[in-house]
Amino acid sequence: MELDQIRIEISDTDQQLLGLLSKRRALALAVAEAKLAQNKPIRDQKREQELLVSLIEKGKPLGLDAGYVTKLYHVIIEDSVLQQQAKVQGQLNGENGPVCRVAFLGRQGSYSYWATQKYFTRRAEKLIEIGCDSFNEIVQAVETGHADYAVLPIENTSSGSINEVFDLLQHTRLSIVGELTHPIKHCLMGLPGTNLANIRQICAHPQVIAQCSNYLQSLSQVKIEYCEASSDAFERVRQAKDLSVVAIGGEEGGALYGLEVLGRDLANQKDNVSRFIVVARKAIAVAKAIPAKTTFIMYTGQQPGALVDALLVLKQHGISMGKLESRPIPGNPWEEMFYVDVLANLEDYAMTRALDELNRITRFVKVLGCYPSEDVSPTQVQS
Ligand SMILES: O=C(O)C(=O)C[C@]1(C(=O)O)C=C[C@@H](O)C=C1
After folding, report:
1. What confidence tens digit (pLDDT) does each residue in 284-310 have?
2. Considering 224, 249, 280, which residue would you say is the last residue of a domain?
3. Ligand 1 site-directed mutation target among 25, 38, 44, 72, most atoms within 8 Å of CB
4. Among 2, 238, 242, 346, which residue's beta carbon has the most beta carbons within 10 A?
């Protein structure tokens, strides 16, 4: 067969695959309805196990190895679970309106832009993008009613917690209503014709610079230009029209600005992933069918063992902690506010009791929000 003919057949097969994936998604959404009616949880790992075992068996005579089938179905099932969660949540809170105005850092092509797209395609028919130049501006856009939601990066596997966002959460009246993780693949991006040997200036966001610090150490002769977002870095390179100026950011984002990849995988950690939170003016309830996270801040005071006592309250109520972070309290040198993520629904009896006790034994507790957990840990099978 001729190359062109084979490619026509490949494209045709891909189209059929897309059609089947779309049909599968629609079926998953119908499953969500059925589960809601029967009061069943969305995730059913026993069913996933059975499905994977059977698909691995069916794949063998077709020449599809177990690793390939498993990898593919992890992606498909993660999508299925997240689609179902978004649907159930939308019904509970009436939140999936036709139009959502969302504030995020940067413009088209920034990492926050892609995270926003990923989160809201499951939830809104139309997204109105409100690009901002700082985390403060993003929070204000929602506080003043110019935006319905804000998407904020909160931590990254290479650079750790994003302190500025933690500090904003201490003072805002907004609630956390969602989370998502997004892989961050830093590339060196330049105008077509750029030669790596001639670069003199790199434009990037300070977080990006922190995440690529090992790589940047090897380029001591190059000037670093701090930018408000990766999209801002791309725009500066486009406007500079100078082949010695490059940006660090995502490949897809850079391509929107006419930039090409000069280097990949620049982050210190191979698996460079950011976790984003979604905040809104109104807190939400999380459906019982969905695993929930609750985030709260507390000030324990400085007496010996105060933090241990607070954490023991969680232990006594069987509540698992996902994250514990401390941040200074402005105006009170050397005193710390603790941020705690727990894997629990705010409406659970155990969580209500734990919060009552924490209110009693600490100086201050504030719940920042309860939201669906988007950690869909892949189901493993023995092959
Ligand atoms: O069969 C179900 O219960 C579904 O919700 C569908 C499905 C899937 O996509 O196959 C998704 C989530 C469950 O954890 C198990 C399976």
Report:
1. 999 999 999 999 999 998 888 999 999
2. 280
3. 44
4. 346
